Structures are given as C-alpha cells and as structure tokens.
Amino acid sequence: MPRFLYTLIFTLLLPAILLRLIYRAWRAPAYARRWGERFAMGGDLRPGGIWVHAVSVGEAIAAAPMIRQLHVRHPNLPITVTCMTPTGSEQIRRMFGDSVGHAYLPYDLPWLQRRMIRRLSPRLCIIMETELWPNLIAECRRASVPVMLANGRLSERSARGYRRVGALVRPMFAALDWAAVQSSTEAGRFLELGLQQVRLTVTGSIKFDITPDAATQAEAHSWRANWGDRPVWIAASTHAGEDQPVLEAHRVVLQRYPHALLILVPRHPERFDGVARMVAEHGLQAVRRTSGAPVQPSDQVLLGDTMGEMMLFFGCADVAFVGGSLVPTGGHNYLEPAALGLPVLSGPHQFNFAEVSDLLGKAGAMRVVRDANQLAIEVVRYFSDPQAAQQDGEAGRAAVQRNQGALEALLGGIAALLR
Prior knowledge:
Rossmann fold; alpha/beta; about 15% strand; 7-stranded parallel β-sheet; globular
C-alpha cells in the first residue's frame, strides 16, 4: 500500500515534474535534450550485462575505478551506466566514451522501470552511494535482477528523511541483495532502515582508491612551470553563495601575495558565465579555461569552466578549498586534493562527507573556515609556511593510502553476485 500511494502521488505530480524539467532546460539547455530516455525510450543500452547507476558527476567519478576493473575482470559482460543529470552524462561520456552504454534513468514509475529492465535484461544492477528508488528496486526484484549498493553512504540528515517514510523505504532496503557501505556508523543507519545484517559489509569508501593519472599530473607540472614562481590556490566545486566569499578572500590574499593565482571551479556549468561576471565585478583579471589562452602573469584568477578536469586543476595548486561547505550543501570530495598531498580547507558544512572530513581533520590534513576572512588567513598561512603546507598535505596523502582497499572488497562481492 505505501508503494502504491507513492506511485499514485508520483503520477499525479508528473505534470509539475515536467514543468520543473522545462524550467531547468531554460536555465541549462542540456536538460531540453533526450527526454525520451526519462520515459525508458531510446538511449544507448547494452543488454545482458551489468547496469551501473550513478546519479551525477560525483557518483560517476567514484564509480570509474570500479567500472574500469569490471571491464578487465568481466570482459564478456557489457556495461550500461545511467545517471540523472546532463553534467553526469557528460562526465560518463568523457571518462568512458563508447566503451559503455549510457542513458538517463527513467522516472521512478513501475511501468517505466519495468520497460527499462526488460530492454536491459541485466545480470546485476549496481547503484552508487544512496540513489535508491522504491519502484526501481521492486521491479528489479520482480524480474529476479540482483541489486547491490556500492560505496553506500547515508548521512544522519538523509537517514532522518528516510525514517519519516519508513513504511515505504523499509521494504526497499530489505530487498537489497548486498550493500557495501563506507563506515560502521553508516552501516548502523542502514540497518535501522531495514537492510538485513547478512547482506551488509563495511568495505570503506572506494574514493580512497585514488591513483592520480600520471599524464594529468605531468600536464599540471607543465602548467606550473609556465606560470613561474607564484603561489596558487584552488576553490573547487563552489556553489551559489560561495564565490563571493572566495573572491573576497582572494583580494585579501593578493594584498600579501600580489602575484597569487586563484583557480576558481564552479560546480555547475550553468553558473560559469555568472561567476565570470562576478570575478570582473571584483576588479580581478581573469582567464577562462575554455578560452584556450595561457595564464599570463597579470591574471589573478583562472576560471575552470570545464568538466572533468578537477584533478588537473588540483595538480596545479598549493592549497585546496573544497566547496559546497560554506553553504549547507554538505561538502564535496576532500580525498582528491588529499591524495595529491595538498592541505585541505573546508567550510563547516561537511555532512555529506562526515567520516572523510573527520578522518582528515584528525590527521591534521584539513582545517575548517567559516567565512572569507578565515579562508584568507589560512591560505596566507600556508603560502607563508611551505613546510607546514607540505606536512599537512603529506598527512592527508598518508591517510588516503592507509584507507585504501575498498575497491578490491567491492569487486569480490560483485563477482559473487554474478556467479
């Protein structure tokens, strides 16, 4: 009965959902394309293999090492990767090209999920992190398709939301064939919501299993060599409400280090032009990555207005601030800069990466700032004391390396489900 009511409400809300999609298409034109896929029509589907669902960019990046290993270990099984957002779609195609099938996940209505499953006929459905949908799980179970949760995470905030609709979600969690979760704390939350103990394993986060690409880092070193001896910091994955304090902080940094460069990378492409205008309004000289022009000594900001180049930008920096944390978004992946040996700065809102931020904080690899002034102080402190920056950065790199191994455990569990 709860799932019937959920489906009824979802169906009644479908006109509003479509209006929202039209609005998003007005803001970001990529949303205007491939609507058929949201109704389980079209898309590049590779039937008879492994279905991986990664909702957006972060989940797609997290899934990349797993997908590459699945190609190696199960070469006869095609892989199809679904997502929900144009940025996630762009990231998937950039990372994998035509080596995987790709489509948007259809809306969570039973007849649409049934059509998707019928067209895919997957041997296994792998859902990244916490992108669980009641009808998707139920229809997979009806079709005898095993479903597993990979790199599962569940913040206390998300768990509270699920508890409010416990009658709907408890059968969904109970239907999972296996969940590989990031921490014992999160495991407890999953168990509270109905996941069976025998189907749960704490593997750690596969995001720790980062191997920086040698070619990307070589390109970053080449960039730095061309920039000369100037201090560089990055503000990565910033959201609306964060660019202003970041730019204010950079103006303070420039008073102490006039040749400092800020690499500013907004999280969403639809914000690139607005952030570029904001940089100009602050009186800062900027160059956009998409212009193809090299960074000049007079440039004070490099606007990273591309997708899929974050590790390249991190490789160019001496200090990293990770966005989504000065505003209540919950933070983003702190492990990428830590894996490169950068000292990490974050705002106070870290609930999406609570375990990771706690780990890096205890290791002395991450510091919390609450406003533009504190951000500027910490950047200047690291610029002024390269030894402290190196020490904190190496502490973060060591913490990442100590916690690697989740990917191997995950791949072992996948192999067992495929037998």
